[in-house]
Amino acid sequence: MGIFGLALLAAAAIARAAPNCPVVPRQASGTAAWDTAYASARAAVARLSQQDKINIVTGIGWERGPCVGNTAPVNSIGYPQLCLQDGPLGIRFATGTTAFTPGVQAASTWDVDLIRQRGEYLGAEARAVGVHVLLGPVAGALGKIPHGGRNWEGFGSDPYLAGICMAETIEAIQSQGVQACAKHYIVNEQEWMRETMSSNVDDRTMHEIYLWPFADAAHSNVASFMCSYNKINGTWACESDSVQNKLLKQELGFRGYIMSDWNAQHTTVGSANSGMDMTMPGTDFSGGNVLWGPQLNNAVNSGQVSRARLDDMATRILAAWYLVGQDKGYPQVNLRLNVQGNHKENVRAVARDGIVLLRNEGNILPLGRPSRIAVVGSGAVIGRHAQNGCQDKGCNDGALGMGWGSGSVNYPYFVAPYDAIRERASRDGTQVSLHSSDNTNGVQNVVQGADVAIVFITADSGEGYITVEGHPGDRNHLDPWHNGNQLVQAVAAANKNTIVVVHSTGPIILETILNTPGVRAVVWAGLPSQENGNAIVDILYGSTSPSGKLVYTIAKRPEDYGVSIVRGDDNFREGVFVDYRWFDQNNIEPRFEFGFGLSYTNFSYSGLSITSNARAGPATGPTIPGGPADLWETVATVTAQITNTGGVAGAEVAQLYLTLPPTAPPAGPRQLRGFTKLKLQPGQTGTATFKLRKRDLSYWDVGRQQWVVPSGRFTISVGASSRDIRLTGSIDV
Ligand SMILES: *[C@@H]1O[C@H](CO)[C@@H](O)[C@H](O)[C@H]1NC(C)=O
Ligand SMILES: *[C@@H]1O[C@H](CO)[C@@H](O)[C@H](O)[C@H]1NC(C)=O
Asked: Where is the secretion signal located (predicted)?
């Protein structure tokens, strides 16, 4: 049976087993919902013994329950055995759930409706299989190092974009009654030595870059945070008073709880007093080294950890549980249920709309009705990766849909490019020939004479506990794997209509490919998960115009990034100049800049209009989740008219970049502070509206320890990428 048959069977099974998803009222925003949840939690905690509280904050141990994290139930208050399960793109170790697109693909769509729907479906599936806490979304790694193994789990290398994606995803997951978990907190930017290295970050960079998307998470009332494996300024994250108590709980007013990353706790007392609220999984991976449980009991009895601190831990955990309504009729854990419903439609839409068209010479795409297509590369066909044949996706020997590690899930089915192309081509009577390996031997015979040759190349990365083809989580280099450059050269030598499709966890250097005569198109297909083949067919044949934009910079040379994996402590010398900010600040020309992406149509920009009531000065409002309340107020509105001037329907991601006045410390020429995606018919004009909040106009003033709107002239740049600015204006503050 082919993959299409399997997909149909899965669809039939879905129709029989509709998930039981009771409608949960959308939570009220801000502090009122927390106040109510805290009242319930305090009343419950008052009825608990010390042992009950210890049970609530301590995992029962690795592999001792149905989920990757479990705590003991407290029957007297109806509190269940809590199930915490990976991860950011679906339910790990489940068999009937959807393999959603990775965060990076969702971000590449820049489409908040799709991102929110992805989150709702993630939440609905987690709820239906009884998962209380879904361990995602991810804003750390932010992806400052292009080689970073886990960058693909997050939402690209800009804090504003990541922050919007965090907020949309968290609110959507929690709207289904599931607790989300913002992770990995914080500055966990590489896999290499992640459990011993220290990220030494200055205060301003911490606030303006790395803490920024986590502030969005707190503002969205996220139930939980996960402290990361690394050290910050020499102190482990889960033992850090500065990042847990001061930054997160005091400054950001976070009212949920902080759990450890798995085995990231190092002491009994230090972690408790620095703000960690729950230890996971409760033991190390051999089932030993219990740091809380009886140890915490002793520490409380001896006064090293106060009873008030233990009460605070339990209260935070219970409040989060009440906040999302899990005290009423929550399903039992069953990771075997088929709960996919129609969710694959979101996977296909995100996979497709996250595809970025990088080159399209002579409009070779979309394909018309070719008489013969040659398909080349192991990335075009099912390998062990897509057949769930490698533990946690730790292999790269076929079509690629996601990276590897704890952030991966089983595919319920997988549509490979070759199968989807063949299916689509059969409608036109197009012949499709295949060279399914990355070996150049014999490839020229296959591609010669074909109207187009489509080469699939890949680059993979993942979590550091698995090494794949010598890559220890982080990538060793930024080249395509399996000699992808040579494969493309061999194909293009024999076929002057070569189309290169890249499936990759992050940037690769494309110079060799772009300089190869005959390479007419380059399609950056990212990580499309289970709908890999369908998404690429949608774009290749133009049933949808490409509308994704890069969420990281593609450089001409690896050195141009100015950063790489650090073999020791990382002093974050680049400061706030991460990704495009680095290239812009240092006048380094990228190959494809952040925010770039072509379409099958064109868009014109006109009619910039700006209204502002912004005032200079610090944010001084009362602290709500996310920081001072006034930081989140809209202080300026910018609109622009976008017109589809081409011949086909398409969607444009209009982006707003802000330049702060020189009275603020240097932050690079432009920072992303708004985006809108408009779907437009040929000739149609739409209005892009950007709302700027006070935080969007602020810098972190290290001396005052406040966010401050500087006085002077702010430049507003609206355009199609970070370097393709079409309209400019200004605000005087
Ligand atoms: C880390 O150290 C730097 C340099 O002293 C300081 O600016 C920053 O605030 C520290 N960060 C934390 C989280 O303590
Ligand atoms: C978009 O406009 C440019 C410049 O006018 C032109 O070269 C290109 O072919 C157009 N693309 C499409 C898809 O219409």
From this structure: 1-17
